[in-house]
Amino acid sequence: MADGVTAPEAHEIGKLRWRCRRGMKELDVLLTRYVEEEYSRAPPAHKQAFRELLDSQDPLIHAYFLGRLAPPTAVLSALIERITASPPNDRY
User: Fold this and answer.
1) pTM for this entry
2) Domain 2-84 class in CATH
3) Where are the domains of the chain?
4) What pLDDT digit, counting tens, does each position of 23-76 carry?
């Protein structure tokens, strides 16, 4: 596959793209951008935290992104910082 992504990884990314479709456009943009630009090269702990984040309700995710609520783990906190940071220039 292109960009060093295997067929199973491409399948997983496709599923994640679908799960990034939320009820809030702002979340759609942030989550989809992360999947498209960073997920495949993210550390395993961040991949797991991202999948768990997608299981959360939109208001909770939105509160994390706005800093209104602290994420419950350090890994999730670091992931939120990456997602909400300015353009992603090779962060890993």
Assistant:
1) 0.84
2) mainly alpha
3) 2-84
4) 899 999 999 999 999 999 999 999 999 999 999 999 999 999 999 999 999 999
